[in-house]
Amino acid sequence: MIPVPTFLRTLTSGLVLACALAACSEAGSMTLDTPDPPGPELPPDPPRDSTEICGIAASFPGDQGIAAHPSVLFHEDFEHGSMGRLAERFSSIRNPGRLDFVDSVSAESSGERALRMTAVGGAGTGAHLFRSFDGGHNLLHLRYYIRYDTSHVYHHTGGTLGGYNPPTPWPQGGAGSRPGGADKISIRFEPMSRGRGLDFYTYWMEMRGNPGDSSFWGNTFLGGARPPVPHREWVAVEFMVRLNDPADATNGELALWLDGEPVLHLRPGDPRGRWVWDTFHPDPQGEPFPGFQWRNADNLGLNWLWFSHYVTGQPEGEVSEVWWDDIVLATEYIGPIGGSPCP
Prior knowledge:
- It is a single chain.
- The protein is 10% helix and 34% strand.
- It is mainly beta and 343 residues long.
- The chain has one domain: Jelly Rolls (Sandwich), CATH 2.60.120.200.
- Strands 1, 3, 4, 6, 10, 11, 12 and 17 form an eight-stranded antiparallel beta sheet that branches. Strands 2-5-16-7-8-9 form a six-stranded antiparallel beta sheet, with no helix packed on it.
- It is globular.
- The relative contact order is 0.25.
């Protein structure tokens, strides 16, 4: 059994506490009621699909050979240790002088190397890797291992899935503006500013804005239940994006796992919560989540991934680092390295 990291135990406790507080607030006070008599015994839940339980990675110890799985579209473990090879694998590399390979990996990895991105205050804003691919997908899972190696406040540092129509081999601009529905989608998982934990930072056609100045900045979904940033600790991040289909539907989804533990699954009707400007706060007393209309044109699909370490406002000379390893992009659940073997 994979041990649950400290930051996940903290998240679980926070969710339980948030639910308890919500219940007390609704009732005004807590009372102890006489338990209801036991009802009829319910039938057991139907068995879950084995792939959903264990994921692709469980069949490939240490991720060795995982690229051969028919659902895997891309795999990068940085074991080649070559900037030339990196340039062949990614269509855009920003500030290659801020990239290097380190001989340190997660305990689950079968490799020996990871990639480090560095930002230095007063000497640029970090680095990125970007890869576009042919066609467009309606459903993708992205899993990567990341280590925030310093305790400095990060800005846009995380993995991103998205779609451009038409596609480009580099990341497009557009911060502060809402997509039109046929042009672009962007979903990143990253640390929030001012040390407010981890959350999504998301742009799509129905994103919420700031009513004060009519601007649109990336929407977030974990509210007060954000897990803290795990400094100097490897964590397996996996998120799934399912686009709405057909284009006029609101049946799109977004899900998140950390070290294989489910954290969030946004879909039509679930979870309940409330919006405060551009942030969705899960709340059992709130309204059911409506689902996503990510797009209004079928020819906009998911067709790029982006790994960025973008930092602004660092003091002169301050160094911030992030390490990456064991990236997998697939059309089904991947899971962390070292998961339980599939039946």
